[in-house]
Write a structure and sequence with these properties.
340 residues, 2 domains, 29% helix, globular, binds adenosine monophosphate, binds magnesium ion
Amino acid sequence: MEGLTRWLTIEQLSEAASYLRRGDVVAFPTETVYGLGANALDAEAVRRIFAAKGRPADNPLIVHCHDAAQVATIVEPWDAVVQRLMDAFWPGPLTLVLTKKPHVPLVTTGGLTTAAVRIPDHTVALELIRSAGVPLAAPSANRSGRPSPTRAEHVRDDLDGRIAAIVDGGPTGWGLESTVLDCTEVPFRLLRPGGVTVEQLRSFAEVVTDPGVYQEPKGPVRSPGMKYKHYAPECTVIVVVGEGLSAKIKELADNDAKDGKDVGVLAFSEHGGRYSGLLTLDLGSKYRLQEGAARLYHLLREADTLGLDTLYVEGMPDKELGMAIMNRLRRAAGYRVIVT
Ligand code: AMP
Ligand code: MG
């Protein structure tokens, strides 16, 4: 669709809901990132999401529901362990992959017999789903491959003229997409790390981490989203990890600058002083990784706004929220990671 995109406030949700009911797509805030929603049970409406984003048809969408009763209309009955996960983490940034009910269109699930479901922890998202009266299939509201949107303006930059409306609910909270856990086999499998950490999940169930969380997948993947370029700005991103990361970044960035390149460093607040003479973007405190999570995508977009050729990024240990941030950084970097 090419046309006018309506910019709506959170007081105008009934207008957004009416677009959804007639089969159009609408971007809305959640506690993770902005989602691009359409009626999950209407194959034509869901196709409009794929078209607007330029998303490959085999990359399935997460179905957002407002309560457990609505979840039960999408997936087959679940067991007691899954119920405990729902009780502990919903509403919240945990997506569960379960067996889909037959009436859920295959376009929504990218051709799979499973469906990913979650209940978002955001009043605007919940109110919109309730008011539309249908579960909403909603991937992140960015052009496919780009950093996910954490502000309504990011959605406009990517999708203006391609969707019916954008609901502006201000910056999102978590800033990273939900954790995705495949519960269709035991042990459960972490397909994407997010705000709910694997350490938290393991107090409820045995969880294995899919290798695709760490590495570029080579063969078939359990989560189709893993094989596509994602989260990447236009500039070259290079992640540096290990004890000597600051010295390495300084050396590489200084060399690039001498060659006339526009370089930047994405560094923790505590390390800003290590990169004198270089343009530094602030990832927040290394002791409060939720700051980095919340601003990561905005900073990746900022790197392009500043016209950088290369952005060097301080890596961090793959644990707790650092696991989700590193997963996004590796992909934004096209897996260019330097270990010092
Ligand atoms: P996004 O919609 O951009 O947040 O991406 C959704 C992620 O969830 C992608 O990585 C998908 O591959 C993954 N996903 C959604 N549904 C399923 C499913 N049924 N099985 C496995 N992964 C899924
Ligand atoms: Mg996405």
